[in-house]
User: Fold Bifunctional protein FolD from Saccharothrix xinjiangensis.
Amino acid sequence: MSALIMDGTSVATSALAETAERVRDFTARVGRPPVLATVLVGDDPASHTYVRMKRSRCARVGIGSRSVELPATTTTAELVGLLAELSGDPAVDGILLQHPVPGHVDERAAFEAIAPHKDVDGVTTRSFAAMAFGLPGFASCTPGGILRLLDAYDVPLPGRRAVVVGRSPILGKPVALLLLARDATVTCCHSKTADLAEVVREADVVVAAVGRPELVRGEWVKPGAVVVDAGYNPGNVGDVEHATARERAGLITPVPGGVGPMTIALLLEQTARAAEANAGLA
Ligand SMILES: Nc1nc(=O)c2c([nH]1)NC[C@@H]1CN(c3ccc(C(=O)N[C@@H](CCC(=O)O)C(=O)O)cc3)C=[N+]21
Assistant:
């Protein structure tokens, strides 16, 4: 058997078309497009590439973007100051602080400086809490994008065993909570998990979100399981070993062309929603 591929590029393209329409309406009514501010600290080449992709996708749907690039020597106080300024700037609707920031910067403090109504990337404690309680708010983009993709392929979740590998605050932990909210029976694994292979073998749905190339081996995949590879590692290598996983899974996301495009689609949709709310339209 060979898995059906979950085509994130194609699902994201439809989502972007809907966002483009929203953006056209917004621009006609408000007289300016929604604006996303992207903030990048340091000179990690992969982060530059991701931010460039996000900005070019903004341009494609008619969202304006403002790019702020800060040196690797930026202090926590400087970054917090900048984010507070963007939070108070009426010309900015959404703010994305690209993760990771240099090690000496307190990333949590920086995320918390983003005003909740502009947190289109869903990284603040307020957004996390809203997501965890099932209240309206902005989802963390990769987890939200993963759920959209599962829905686009009608993956049943109630009562199914979901195993999330990874527990980061903007990926593993929120995706585990979203799956729980959809009535999956969720196990969240991490570096201290004993017998990871045995846990993954139980999964009807596996979400790999650790950032370790090919950590999840294809032979761990239960035949017919749904495999979501949310890993982003250098060279477009995911967290799943795909050659074998593809032979065993029922559905699998490719890398590239799976979760990545969905992440960006959600970011832009949430930017359009933020702009509508900030302009009093929603
Ligand atoms: N605050 C924050 N929010 C994020 O959402 C965030 C972040 N920080 N830091 C880095 C990761 C990474 N990330 C990706 C988004 C899209 C692709 C994507 O679209 N990739 C293409 C491939 C691109 C290529 O060809 O290189 C694909 O998968 O098809 C990848 C990675 C968002 N991230």
User: Anything to note?
Assistant: The chain has two domains: 33-115, 141-260. Residues 150 and 156 are 8 Å apart (CA to CA). Strands lie at 4-5, 35-41, 64-70, 94-97, 161-165, 185-189, 205-208, 226-229, 251-252.
